[in-house]
Structure formats: structure tokens, C-alpha cells
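ok so for the tutorial part 2 we go from a plain amino acid sequence to predicted C-alpha cells. step 1 is just haveing the sequence, like this:
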Amino acid sequence: PQVTFTLAVFRGFPWEKVPFYMFAQLLGGFCGAGVVYANYFHAIDIVEGGPGIRTISGSGDLLATYAASFLTPVSCFFSEFLGSAILIIGVLCVTDKKNGPPPQGLVPLSLFIVVLGIGASLGMNTSYSLNPARDLGPRFFTAAVGYGTAVFTYRNHYWLWCIVLGPVTGMLCGAFIYDTLIFQGGESIINKPNAQAIDHHLRACPGQRGKLPAGAGIESA
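step 2 — the prediction. this is what the C-alpha cells look like for a chain of 221 residues:
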């Protein structure tokens, strides 16, 4: 959900679509956790010590993400903040047509390499949730199949201040940095032309009078 939210803030993704995308992403995480749980159900029983026993320390982290015990709350938050900022910078970079993006068919591979790099270098601390859908969907599922409310009360509601707020603030900050230092398109709120810039563009290029610069809304004309 956080990538969708960030693109709505910085790239003009339609806000009316955001709730539906978020719901679909959370539902995907929930269903994915169900498939994994069904596949390892009997193995989980063995690890936990018997049928019906479900604990976070035993098998809960198979599905959702939990921080290492040696981390402070601030360290947990910063780890998710940093990884999420790097992820959104990677997403914006490989989709920026003015920044030498990879061929369209290689965008998924490029994003896979970005996520792999983040996981390999930053994943030890919090299992790199990076996006709430990756954690919240499975977390709701574990709550429903026997792990109980402990998945939400863990470390003073860790899921909220680390798994949700960490990626939210991290991706917004990463997108702001990318758009401020690199991005040149008019779709961003950082570069969106105002009425004065549009008027200057039309005076300089009279032939473009019927074509507004990218990112210019009708209300600005």
C-alpha cells in the first residue's frame, strides 16, 4: 500500500483508486500467508510441540515480520525507514523515462534486484517488511488461525510504529529526495509547473498553446 500511497502523493496516481489498490494488496498478502500456512501446517505442529499450539517465538515469524530482540524501538523504526526509502528510490529510478530506465520487460527484474539487495544488506534487523502489505496481510491471517492478539500487542504494538509508520515516512522521504535531486518531470508535486511557468512556456513556444506541459492541470491554464 505504501508504494501506491507515495505514487498518489508524488506522481498523480488517482486518489480514488488508492483504497481499492490497498485492499487488494492486503488481501493478496492474507491469501499468500494462507497458502504458506497450509503447506507447512504439519511442520508447524512439530515445531510448536503439538496441534493447536501457536506462538510468535515458535513459528509466528514464518509468516509475518518481527524485529531481532537486541534492537531498540528507534533502531527498528530506522531500519524500516531506511529500507523503504531505498526501495521507493529504486522504483522511481527504474520508471523514470528521463533517467536511462531499463527496457520495459526488464523493470520487474530490476525491482527484484533492488529488493534482493535491500534484503541482503538490511534485512537482518526487522526482516525488511518495507511495505505494510507484506506484513499486515499475514499478520491478520496469523491472528485468525490461533496466534491471537499477541501478533498486534508484540513490543508495544510494533506493527503500527515500525511496520506501518516506518515505510510510510521512509517512502515519502525517499520520493522527496529523488524528486528534489534527480526527477525532471512535471508530474511530481516538486516540479509541477505553476500558472506563471505555463504562461512563460506558451509565450516561448506559441505552437504549443494547445498542449500543456506535463503535470499541468486544466485549472492552471
